[in-house]
């Protein structure tokens, strides 16, 4: 059995190794070198205008975060036929695979 495995791997290496060597030497097309169409030089940083940082909006610091949606407006009711089953809703959860990170510290 061991001789068969060694023979199989030997054949695999002897077939694939020449393909790798030939692939490194094969040129399918010549590289194309062109000059740039547009050259741009940015101004030096010492010549650029400096903008001071703006004051951030800290109106939420009083402890109240404003919600910008209307909670008094009722949600629209959908008109689905009776017995309608959503075909894309997930009803069965997959099992947890072993190589996932469960907890990260």
Task: Give an account of the 3D structure.
By secondary structure, the chain is an all-alpha fold. It has 1 helix and no strands. The protein is flat and about 75 Å long.
Q: Structural class of the helix and strand makeup?
A: mainly alpha
Which radius of gyration do the C-alpha atoms yield? 33 Å
Average pLDDT over all residues: 78
For the secondary structure, the number of strands is 0
Q: Give the amount of beta strand, in percent.
A: under 5%
Low-confidence stretches: none
Return the string of H and E elements: H
* DSSP helical segment count: 1
- What is the share of helical residues? 10-25%
Shape, per Cα inertia axes: flat
Largest sheet: none
Distance between the termini: 47 Å
Give structural attributes.
mainly alpha; 23% helix; 105 residues; 1 helix; flat
Architecture blueprint of SSEs:
Elements: H1 2-25
Task: Give a brief rundown of this model.
The chain is an all-alpha fold. It has one helix and no strands. The two termini are 47 Å apart.
């Amino acid at each position: 059995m061991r001789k068969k495995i060694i023979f199989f791997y030997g054949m695999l290496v002897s077939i694939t190794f020449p393909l790798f060597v030939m692939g490194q030497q094969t040129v399918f097309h010549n590289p194309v070198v062109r000059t740039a169409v547009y050259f741009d030089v940015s101004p030096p940083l010492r010549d650029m205008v400096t903008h001071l940082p703006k004051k951030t909006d800290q109106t939420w610091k009083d402890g109240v975060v404003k919600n910008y949606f209307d909670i008094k407006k009722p949600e629209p009711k959908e008109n689905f036929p009776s017995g309608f089953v959503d075909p894309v809703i997930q009803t069965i959860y997959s099992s947890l695979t072993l190589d996932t990170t469960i907890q990260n510290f």
